């Protein structure tokens, strides 16, 4: 436990995908370390699966969960909503306001700035998680959002990035860093390193994630079609996820004659979805530090992923195995290589898995984030043994799974 417990409030717009997984693990680690944690998020979004993650987190949140309607894009109504939220956040007397994503970051910096004149002065921390950094700086929408980010930068006390790529993108699109910053990788729990065995009737490939063009769901469908033509046989696939373009992608699969080849399951726990396929495919056009890639590698699943965002940082010296984004034909070629030699694909995953066990762990993530809060607050950090324990558990799991493999 840290010598000086903190009152921490996390804020994000939509409690979905990798961001809610990140906050779930981070908030639980902070609560376990003796800090009081709360969450503010949108009340109108989130699949049943995403909301189940939120429900599991609630018992660990001493400062509770505050939910209200947040629109995706910034509007004048956000100022009214922030004014209403201000009283609730003020009553929590936070030491740290941590915003996740563009909208969460906007609320944190506005409300945090209004609280600066009070006795308790919370530090305002912002984690982009991709967000506005995914916008093209040469397009009108990108120029607007990046200008807003630059304006808000002066009301920010610290920046936390989940990848070196994300930090570089911020410097390139928003401007030079003028406040303290740190890169803290997303981390896995010890159980995430347990091997997953595909079901006997598993599909050839599985996609797990949001159903959005940004995530390359359309490229995955087109790659399945390409493989069907190339091999002359039915290629089976699972698409596990929800998103605003689900109907569009279902129509695309039907149009290509793949309705009986591709099964849309809705959102599922990652490891459950992994077992439904023999290879995980991550065809994203843009990413920050995707949990699905970490989870797939941790589980030992063969994986085909694109060279975007922080994914090369996960693969490290093995990054040459990644696929250039935006092309279904290149994706199909990599997927066909896995079909031709599945054992080789599993062996390659095992190599990457061993390298991430000491770096991408949830206890390490939690400890580094708390020490950053302490830095901003001017509080000497207290080192815990939790991260060391996690590494020992991961090493034990690796040794056990290696024996199983032999």
TrEMBL record:
EC number of this enzyme: 2.4.-.-
Keywords: Glycosyltransferase, Transferase
UniProt domain Glycosyltransferase subfamily 4-like N-terminal: residue ranges: 17-187
Listed GO MF terms: glycosyltransferase activity
One Pfam family recorded for the sequence: Glyco_trans_4_4
InterPro entries, A to Z: Glyco_trans_4-like_N
UniProt keyword annotation of Cell membrane present: no
CDD domains on file: GT4_PimA-like
Keyword Membrane found: no
Enzyme class: transferase
Protein name: Glycosyltransferase family 4 protein
Native source organism of the sequence: Pannonibacter anstelovis
């Amino acid at each position: 436990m840290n010598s000086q417990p903190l009152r921490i409030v996390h804020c994000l717009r939509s409690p979905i995908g990798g961001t809610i997984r990140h906050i779930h693990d981070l908030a639980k680690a902070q609560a376990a370390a003796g800090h009081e944690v709360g969450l503010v998020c949108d009340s109108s979004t989130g699949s049943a699966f995403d909301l189940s993650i939120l429900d599991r987190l609630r018992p660990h949140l001493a400062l509770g969960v505050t939910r209200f309607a947040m629109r995706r894009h910034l509007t004048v109504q956000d100022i009214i909503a922030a004014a209403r939220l201000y009283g609730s956040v003020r009553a929590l007397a936070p030491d740290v306001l941590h915003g996740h994503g563009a909208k969460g970051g906007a609320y944190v910096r506005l409300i945090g700035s209004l609280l600066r004149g009070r006795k308790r002065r919370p530090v305002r921390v912002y984690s982009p998680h991709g967000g506005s950094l995914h916008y093209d700086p040469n397009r009108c929408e990108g120029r607007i959002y990046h200008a807003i980010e630059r304006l808000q930068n002066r009301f920010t006390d610290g920046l936390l990035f989940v990848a070196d790529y994300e930090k570089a993108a911020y410097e390139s699109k928003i401007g030079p860093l003028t406040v303290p910053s740190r890169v803290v990788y997303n981390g896995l729990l010890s159980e995430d390193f347990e091997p997953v065995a595909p079901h006997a009737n598993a599909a050839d490939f599985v996609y797990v994630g949001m159903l959005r063009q940004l995530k390359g769901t359309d490229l995955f469908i087109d790659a399945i079609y390409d493989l069907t033509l190339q091999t002359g046989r039915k290629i089976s696939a699972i698409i596990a996820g929800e998103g605003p373009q689900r109907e569009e992608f279902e129509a695309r699969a039907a149009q290509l004659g793949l309705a009986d080849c591709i099964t849309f399951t809705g959102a599922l726990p990652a490891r459950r979805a992994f077992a439904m396929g023999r290879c995980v495919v991550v065809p994203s056009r843009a990413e920050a530090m995707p949990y699905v890639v970490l989870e797939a590698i941790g589980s030992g699943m063969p994986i085909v992923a694109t060279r975007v965002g922080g994914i090369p940082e996960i693969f490290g010296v093995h990054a040459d195995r990644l696929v250039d984004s935006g092309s279904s034909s290149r994706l199909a070629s990599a997927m066909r290589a896995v079909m031709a030699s599945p054992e080789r694909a599993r062996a390659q995953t095992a190599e990457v898995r061993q390298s991430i066990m000491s770096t991408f762990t949830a206890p390490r993530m939690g400890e580094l984030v708390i020490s950053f809060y302490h830095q901003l607050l001017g509080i000497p950090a207290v080192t815990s043994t939790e991260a060391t324990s996690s590494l020992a558990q991961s090493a034990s799991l690796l040794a056990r799974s290696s024996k199983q493999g032999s």
